[in-house]
Amino acid sequence: MRKLRNCALVCFLLVAPQLAAAPRNAWIATWAASPQSVTPDPDEPLLKIEDQTVRERVRVSIGGDQICIRLSNEYGSLPLPIGSVTVATPNDAASVRPGSIRSVSFGGRTSITVPAGAPVLSDPLAFPVTSGAEISISLYFPKRVATPTLHGLALKRAILSQHGDHTRAEKIEAGTVSESSILLTAVLVPAQASQGLVVALGDSVTDGDGSTMDADHNWPSDLIRRLGKTPETSKVAVVNEGIVGNRVLKDGAGISAGFGVSALARFDRDVLALPGVTHVVLLEGINDIGFSGAKLGGSYLADPGDARTPQDLIDAYRQLISRAHANGVKVIGATISPFEDVVIPGYYSESKEAVRQAVNQWIRTGGSFDGVLDFDAVLRDPDHPSRLLAGFASPDHLHPNDVGYQAMADAINLALFR
After folding, report:
1. CA 58 to chain centre
2. Could you read off the pLDDT of 84-103 as tens digits, one per residue?
3. What phi and psi, each to the nearest 5 degrees, are found at residue 177?
4. Fewest beta carbons within 10 Å, which of 276, 366, 385, 415?
């Protein structure tokens, strides 16, 4: 027995240097979206998929000569068969450039069943992309998708086919159109030296609510275009992990179930697990403040007694900062934007405004963040600081418009991401 142990040790010592010297392929996220569960909606075609192809698009932040794609069945109650997946260069939502279609494989197979509650990562695919390029992804679902994992506010039209596998069609004759996306949660490219990844973690103001459909005018997309203008900053990838209605402290429930799990709960999945992450911009807390006693469709978004104090949010921010720092990730804190005149009944009050002001003061002066973005100062009306400046506000007076999102991106000190 002792001779066997010695032999095993010698064999390990002989092999270990070879293992240590083996090449390790590193990847970095160039696009991402946070997975969400769904709530019943008779008008959402992605909740009625059966023997259909879905074609959706994403715009990458940095380029590479290969890509991997990540699909998630995190909120699925059953294993999910996918019959075929292709990528291509889009002409528009429904059509792709002739000759650009490539099949995606998973362990060498062009079909896969995604386990319930789990993601899958594709094989590397030789599909060169440049910074800011758009990719079309087509997925064929041969069976009924009972509980899909979506991203609700994709702000890009997804095309659903008539019955059948149309993943290799240059144009899909649309059966229906959705403004959400299904299954796709990340696109990766091979990492290069000196690259960094900024994760924008937030709620609907980060997701881009109020911006123009199909135009990529949320503030993270505007930031990508700024970064791409110089050789040095073009090495920084940006991904958007915003979720409409999301809160820092509490998961969505009831009518807000589709608003995702809390930032505290999803931080590891949506930030720390992304390959290449170096920075996170944290812009979240407005819904923690506003939901208490607010009504949507006649129902409370949160119980009127569930009011949050500034200290509640400050303690949560400190936890996120600690968890990021333990993984070598820097956290840039962003102040919460004004919300007086919001159209949701009960969402705004003077006492809630006082909480926002106190939280913003801590973000600016508390010294816990690695940097600060004062989006409040950018977006507020100087004559009425509790309101968005009229030229920056969308009709709901909660979210910026395209011009406001651009102003946010333009105000960012790019040196924060070094």
Report:
1. 11
2. 999 999 999 999 999 999 99
3. -130, 140
4. 415
